[in-house]
Amino acid sequence: MTLPYVLVLVADPAQGTLSKDAIDIARNMVKGKNPVVLSAGEAVEIPCPTPAPGAPTIATIRATLARHKVDTLLVKTRGRRKAVLVADMDSTILDGETLDEVAIALGIGDEVVKLTEASMNGRLDFEESLRARVALLEGKSAACLEDVWQNTKLNAGARTLVQTMHAHNARTALVSGGFTYFTSRAAEACGFDEHYGNEFDIVDGVFTGKLVGPVLGPNSKEEHLTRLLEERGVKASAALTTGDGTNDLPMLAVAGLGIAYKGKPKVRQMIDMQVNHSTLRAHLFAQGYPASVFVD
User: Fold this and answer.
1) Start-to-end Cα distance in the chain
2) 292 Cβ contact partners less than 8 Å away, ≥ 6 residues apart
3) Of the listed 12, 90, 100, 244, which one is catalytic?
4) Helix H segments across the chain?
5) Burial 161-179 (b: 16+ CB within 10 A, else e)
6) Please, are residues 50 and 30 in contact by the beta-carbon 8 Å criterion?
7) What are the residues whose beta carbons fall under 8 Å from the beta carbon of 167, sequence distance 6 or more?
8) Is residue 265 helix, strand or coil?
9) I want to staple 238 with a disulfide (CB 3.0 to 4.6 A). Which of 136, 141, 211, 234 is the partner?
10) Cα–Cα distance, 192 to 274 (Å, whole number)
11) Nearest-CA neighbor of 290 among 16, 24, 6, 57?
12) pTM exceeds 0.70 for this model
């Protein structure tokens, strides 16, 4: 008989192997069955019953295994594989904040980074922060954009996540509070079906300090998710969303599987499903994909 839940354990192979001790601890905590290997030394899933009253919460399990640097995701067995993926870009698909990197290249990094941190941690309204950051670029050359992109890296597992879900008929979208200059390139590099972001106003190769069109912020991310679900004819339970900042909270909260990927403190406080140690491959293991079917 199939049990209603699975506890997925994932380690980052670059940081160490998923140990038998960690697996045994987790299995005992959820009263689980024999673990099923999804990727040797990296990921297993433990079939388990519905958590009973007084049973350890996912937060307790995560805290217990923190010293092992293992991510824990408790997911329902039914409907694990998702039909829609909506991902944030900066510090999720990409390693770093592209607007910060633009500002650093222009010599105004300190001012912009402080505003970014305040916004991503929920201390400053996203739109207010974005407009303030872009205003600081006024009069400076946009020639740095290509250099910034060339020095930007995909986070480990980003392309694998998108390509594998795409190969299994999921619709994939990159939806960012960052900029289309970068979303277009990141989407192409990973294979996203769609991408959306904000747009710099650039005249004669110079930043005007303004944006083109309305700001794509937290509500816009949720709106794109809702549209994609309607187009696919599926419910929110069939969606996977992932992001790290407070502007991702609306779409993380709505999706059947909303994962805080190395999230800011406020995001980790509000979202149960978290990947704090391993790579974006964890999003596939959470859906029950073994590494043997991953597409790179």
Assistant:
1) 33
2) none
3) 90
4) 20-30, 58-65, 98-105, 109-120, 126-135, 144-150, 158-167, 180-190, 218-232, 249-254, 265-270, 282-286
5) bbbbbbeeebbbbbbbbbb
6) no
7) 295
8) helix
9) 234
10) 22
11) 6
12) yes
3-state secondary structure 167-212: HCCCEEEEEEEEEHHHHHHHHHHHCCCEEEEECEEEECCEEEEEEC
Does the active-site annotation cover 147?
A: no
272 catalytic residue (yes or no): no
Q: Tokens standing for 257?
A: 């599987």
Query: Of the listed 12, 71, 88, 248, which one is catalytic?
Result: 88
Q: What is the pLDDT along the chain (296 residues), one digit of tens a residue?
A: 689 999 999 999 999 999 999 999 999 999 999 999 999 999 999 999 999 999 999 999 999 999 999 999 999 999 999 999 999 999 999 999 999 999 999 999 999 999 988 888 888 899 999 999 999 999 999 999 999 999 999 999 999 999 999 999 999 999 999 999 999 999 999 999 999 999 999 999 999 999 999 999 999 999 999 999 999 999 999 999 999 999 999 999 999 999 999 999 999 999 999 999 999 999 999 999 999 999 98
